[in-house]
Design goal:
The complex is a heterodimer.
Chain A (H helix, E strand, L loop, with lengths): L1 H4 L1 H19 L6 H26 L7 H19 L5 H24 L4 H20 L11 H8 L1 E6 L5 E5 L1 H18 L1 H11 L1 H6 L4 H27 L10 H11 L11 H20 L7 H24 L1
Chain B lengths: L1 H12 L1 H20 L1 H4 L2 H26 L7 H19 L10 H27 L5 H20 L4 E2 L3 H8 L1 E2 L2 E2 H19 L1 H11 L1 H6 L4 H27 L1 E2 L7 H11 L11 H20 L4 H25 L1
The chains are: A mainly alpha, B mainly alpha.
Chain lengths: 325, 330
């Protein structure tokens, strides 16, 4: 019974229902290559969602992570080209570090000046994007100039299947990275003091302070991790699409926030789980993908995502208010 | 003598206004020093009076949402959707004479539709926030996407070009030698200032923002007042949309994307407390003029739009820092 009452179970149920529905309308949905490509589209949004989950649990919000992701990605690749360096590990570390430092700026303003996170992250987002496009450059780095090591790394498949007509398709190994990060985030949230302090902060900041949590450490941790995950995901993304576009990720914040809220994280802070978030991400990606399969005009995508946000937040608000009452 | 008294009472009432005025004068002086021949031209100031009203109205809308500790991230979406819906109507109703000569009745109908869009959008926001209990950030983030999405569905992406002459007059005409948008802005700003300081709605909103619990115990109708405030916000956004579409003779789903950041920046710079309870139309007006002077100065100095975005972001963070230090000494 306890399992039935958990929001993850509900989300999984809705997800299955939606899959059956979409599969009935268009059986192509169940083809293995469609499922593989669905999972592939989960990776980047999913990794970013892990960071946003942490921020939402703490009762904050972050709209700057797409800007951080694109900055970390573009600067790293520019740096690699300038140095003639071709590798995977160091660049990924560099991008992660860049995201982390930018996240620290968010943390600094949120903690030190007690400013509403939305306003802080709106400001940092505009600064980072403005700097990137105004100072670093606006031109795309195409496949012919992209570092080959990154592309080769992102092309690795876990499973590879050959079709009857000789073409092959596979499940990208990046899914494993996503899963690994998700497990790590789950463990941190569940079993470490810093993870619990994020829940405490989101539940009631004053109570968390009096209970002896070091809120400065917590806030910096939250925004640094969100930034670091965004930076990492940004570079991985460019490897996966063989392109570094300094205007990338515009509007992505809404998709990711929608996914996290859809996954049962409370909009008032204090609640949310990694499993729920992963389900939410899958649901969002699937809906967007299926709009195309179901031949819905792509212009409706924004409306669909917006409606998902509204419905998911309304449900979350309804559930949490009932709980509080 | 009387003027002196007025200035003194102004200083006593809110020294934030004085600081804003000082800042505006400083910006003016610096820009004049950097580029006297280009910045000080009459044409430059005239063009500012055409451009700033739409941003000013969006900022006032943002301020009203902030009065109760909320925010409205859908203002730009509402503005664009209003302009587009009116534009779609004009294109449907355009007779053989062409869009420019659309009859005055049709133009009025377009105005009603645009303002109605704002009213409906604001009502949706208000109901989601008060009835459904969604936090304003997420509610308006979601509806903003829906409004922008509907705008894309209606236009398919490209801009709707061509508006009636009477409509364009609202965006780039002249009344008594002054820019029409400027006159509209002055009238609306005065009206809103009156509403906020002299009517029950405004005073209720301030009280709710200052202390929601006390306001509840005092018997204020919180839900209804917050709903009204978002309806007002929506209508103001649609007026901005009317002016924008009139000025540019076009309406598009992604016009004024950077206005969202600027509206938040101006609201905060103008002395609005984003946590609620404090905000004045006068503060917003001075802040928007200051930023417009700054922006036109940067454009004269040939800064790219991206760099100007960077500066807006930095400015927002700077204002946060300054406000934090000001509140500390209090």
């Amino acid at each position: 019974m306890a399992l039935l009452r958990r929001s993850e179970t509900v989300i999984a149920g809705i997800l299955l229902l939606a899959m059956v529905l979409i599969g009935t309308i268009n059986p192509a949905f169940w083809q293995l290559d469609n499922l593989f490509s669905l999972m592939r589209s989960n990776v980047i949004i999913g990794i970013m969602a892990l960071g946003v989950l942490l921020v939402l649990i703490s009762g904050g919000i972050d709209v700057s992570f797409p800007a951080f992701a694109v900055a970390a990605m573009y600067l790293t690749i520019k740096g690699m080209l300038a140095l003639g360096y071709n590798g995977v590990v160091l660049p990924l570390l560099a991008a992660t570090l860049m995201g982390l430092l930018l996240g620290a700026v968010n943390g600094f303003f949120v903690y030190k000046f007690r400013m509403i996170p939305l306003i802080v992250t709106l400001g940092t987002s505009a600064m980072v994007r403005g700097f990137l496009l105004g100072v670093v450059g606006t031109s795309m780095i195409n496949i012919n100039k992209m570092p080959t090591a990154l592309i080769d790394f992102a092309r690795t498949d876990v499973i590879s299947v050959t079709k009857a007509d000789g073409t092959t398709y596979g499940l990208t190994a990046m899914v494993l990275i996503y899963l690994g990060l998700a497990v790590a985030m789950h463990l941190v949230l569940r079993y470490t003091m810093i993870g619990r302090s994020a829940y405490a902060l989101g539940g009631d900041p004053e109570a968390a302070r009096r209970a002896g949590f070091d809120l400065r450490k917590t806030i910096f941790f939250i925004y640094c991790v969100a930034g670091a995950l965004a930076g990492f995901a940004g570079l991985l993304h460019s490897g996966m699409i063989w392109l570094a576009n300094p205007r990338d990720f515009v509007g992505l914040e809404l998709d990711v926030i929608a996914a996290v809220v859809l996954g049962g994280a409370s909009i008032f802070g204090g609640r949310g789980s990694v499993l729920g978030t992963m389900l939410g991400v899958f649901m969002l990606v699937m809906v967007k993908n299926s709009l195309i399969i179901m031949k819905v005009d792509t212009t409706w995508q924004l409306v669909a995502v917006g409606l998902i946000v509204i419905v998911a937040t309304a449900l979350s608000a309804w559930r949490d208010r009932r709980r509080m009452a | 003598m009387k003027a002196q008294m007025n200035i003194r009472s102004l200083v006593n009432r809110d020294n934030n206004i004085v600081q804003l005025l000082v800042m505006t004068v400083l910006i003016f002086a610096v820009m004049t020093a950097l580029s006297p021949d280009k910045f000080l031209r009459y044409y430059n100031f005239e063009s500012i009076t055409y451009i700033f009203p739409e941003l000013g109205l969006l900022s006032i809308a943002m301020m009203i949402a902030m009065l109760t500790g909320g925010i409205d991230l859908s203002v730009v979406g509402v503005a664009n959707l209003s302009g587009i819906l009116a534009g779609v109507l004009f294109h449907k109703m355009a007779g053989a004479a062409g869009i420019a000569d659309t009859g005055i009745l049709t133009v009025l109908l377009g105005g009603v539709i645009a303002l109605g869009t704002g009213l409906v959008a604001g009502t949706v926001n208000g109901l989601l926030i008060t009835r459904m209990g969604i936090t304003p950030i997420l509610a308006t983030l979601g509806t903003g996407q829906v409004f922008t999405g509907l705008a894309i569905v209606l236009t398919g992406g490209p801009a709707i070009v061509g508006f009636p002459t009477a409509w364009a007059f609202l965006g780039n005409g002249k009344i008594l030698g002054l820019a029409t948008p400027f006159v509209l802005f002055a009238a609306i700003a005065a009206l809103i200032a009156f509403m906020l300081t002299r009517t029950a709605l405004g005073i209720n909103l301030m009280l709710i923002g200052t202390n929601p619990k006390a306001a509840l115990f005092a018997g204020l109708k919180r839900e209804r007042m917050v709903l009204y405030s978002y309806m007002l916000t929506g209508v103001l956004a649609s007026v901005a949309g009317i002016i924008l579409s009139g000025r540019t003779n076009a309406a598009k789903s992604d016009y004024g994307n950077s206005y969202l950041l600027q509206a938040v920046l101006i609201a905060v710079l103008g002395g609005t407390n984003p946590a609620g309870g404090r905000g004045t139309v006068l503060g917003i007006t001075i802040a928007v003029v200051a930023l417009m002077l700054l922006s036109s100065g940067f454009q004269i100095l040939r800064f790219s739009n991206h760099l100007i975005d960077f500066i807006w972001g930095a400015f927002l963070l700077l204002v946060i820092v300054i406000n934090a230090y000001k509140n500390r000494t209090r």
